[in-house]
Design a protein that fits this description.
Length: about 300
């Protein structure tokens, strides 16, 4: 199995669906805790309208205060989620090293979430990528509801393929398939991965799983078993969800995912799981919301 890069999405996806909006200074403290635990690439902020997602307000303030290098001097990669050219222009004025454009693959979800069709969102993505490239900032596109849509229902691999082809034409650095509402199963993981060619100049492959129906970790394992280099999104404590998707519960948890992979002998981004468990407990109190991850409850085996 190839090495797996863990991408921590707790500061963004982990917070955006919580009832309590944390102030920028608390979000900075969360990032600092995650970095101290070994996280090196993380989705830190979202450059979206604060009236739509108030939990993500103050992105520039957060980015002005977060560390840009780890305690050992390793550069950190801060990812900023954007939806259009305006968000990308905001992002490149900060210490963000990568923009992530979310493109839903169905018009039904895209219209409710982003106020445009898939075609319109692809135009927005092209403009955002151009801004980032001009600023020397990395680019990734996440295809939301690629495993199934709460409004359109089943999403076929053939349908996703048409969107993938158009994203590949943008020349992004990375492409991610997201199970936004947690309906996916392992067989879909392999089918979607096959849409990304195994070529030297192809974008990197990443997956984003939610554990809504308890299949998130099985899907993560299926991604690792593909035998190709892959990155996996996860959120400390298993916090997360999409405010525009009914019943979209938390992401797979960073500490639980790392436990599974390391115990299975998979080369994975090294982190201090105990520190992640402690951070999840701290974040639970800040949010007044329960930890979904199980490692902190069960403990490490003797």
């Amino acid at each position: 199995m190839s090495a797996v890069e863990l991408v921590e999405v707790g500061p963004r996806d982990g917070l955006q669906n919580e009832d309590r909006a944390l102030p920028p200074e608390t979000r900075v403290a969360l990032v600092e805790r995650l970095v101290a635990a070994g996280v090196r690439r993380l989705e830190t902020v979202s450059f979206v309208r604060p009236d739509r997602v108030p939990q993500m307000a103050g992105a520039e303030e957060v980015m002005a205060a977060v560390p840009t290098t780890a305690p050992d001097g390793t550069p950190l990669t801060h990812v900023g989620l954007v939806l259009n050219e305006r968000g990308a222009r905001r992002a490149v004025e900060t210490a963000v090293g990568e923009i992530n454009v979310v493109v839903p693959v169905t018009d039904e979800f895209c219209t409710r979430n982003q106020g445009t069709t898939v075609d319109g969102m692809l135009d927005h993505a092209a403009a955002a990528v151009e801004v980032a490239r001009g600023a020397g900032v990395g680019t990734s596109v996440t295809l939301a509801v690629a495993f199934g849509c709460p409004f359109a229902g089943t999403v076929s691999t053939e349908h996703v393929a048409g969107v993938v082809d158009r994203v590949l034409a943008l020349g992004v650095d990375e492409l991610a398939f997201a199970d936004t509402v947690g309906v996916g199963v392992p067989t879909q993981v392999a089918a979607l991965a096959d849409l990304l060619p195994r070529l030297p100049d192809a974008p990197r492959l990443r997956f984003h799983f939610h554990n809504t129906r308890n299949t998130g970790y099985a899907n993560a394992w299926a991604a690792v078993a593909l035998g190709r280099r892959v990155a996996l999104d996860a959120s400390v404590g298993g916090f997360g969800g999409c405010p525009f998707a009914p019943a979209a519960t938390g992401n797979i948890a960073s500490e639980d995912l790392h436990y599974m992979l390391e115990r299975a002998g998979v080369a994975v981004t090294p982190v201090d799981r105990g520190a992640l468990v402690d951070t999840a407990g701290w974040l639970s109190k800040e949010l007044d919301s329960g930890v979904q991850a199980l490692l902190g409850k069960a403990g490490e085996p003797a």
